[in-house]
Amino acid sequence: MTTLKERLHADVVSHMKDRNKVALTTVRNVLGEIETREKSGKTPVELSDAEVTSLLQKEAAKRHDTARIYTEAGEDDRAAAEIAEAEIIEAYLPKALTPAEVEAIVDETIAALKADGVELSIRQLGAVMKPVTAKVAGRFDGKAVSEIVRNRIAQ
Are 64 and 82 contacting, i.e. CB atoms less than 8 angstroms apart? Predict the structure, then answer.
């Protein structure tokens, strides 16, 4: 199984062969961001797939924000270019979960904790959030997960 970073490097070669300039430039920019993160600080580090995924989410969000700004300024062609880059980046992200799937994960976690004899109240929010966040990891909005957990505990 290849890492996400290895997949990005392999795709640079395939985009070169396909002469896909937009995808090539976008993937190279993302790889540059990854390498900058790895080399910044006192000691170089190797980013994990989870950290690379987080970085990709931020990069895609940046592109969407920039596209919105361009659209408001009447620069529709530039906005379209930013959206195209965001879509290329989002292709590397894991499939997003639906609210129903997240609710099922929360319910499973709460049932497991109750089976272990844990009495759940809003004070034990962290005890539920930790395993749920590990399972959801970058595939659903954290604030929305927190709201779902709060609602389930309050019932």
Answer: yes
Label residue 2 by pLDDT band (50, 70, 90). Answer: low
pTM: 0.69
The CATH number of the domain holding residue 37 is 1.10.1510.10
Measured between alpha carbons, how far is residue 14 from residues 8, 26, 105, 148 in Å?
Answer: 10, 13, 37, 41
Whether residue 80 sits in one domain with residue 105:
no
Burial 6-38 (b: 16+ CB within 10 A, else e): eebeebeeebeeeeeeebbebbeebbebbeeee
pLDDT at 61 over 80: yes
Number of helical (H) and strand (E) elements in the chain, helices listed first: 7, 0
Question: Residue type at 4?
Answer: L
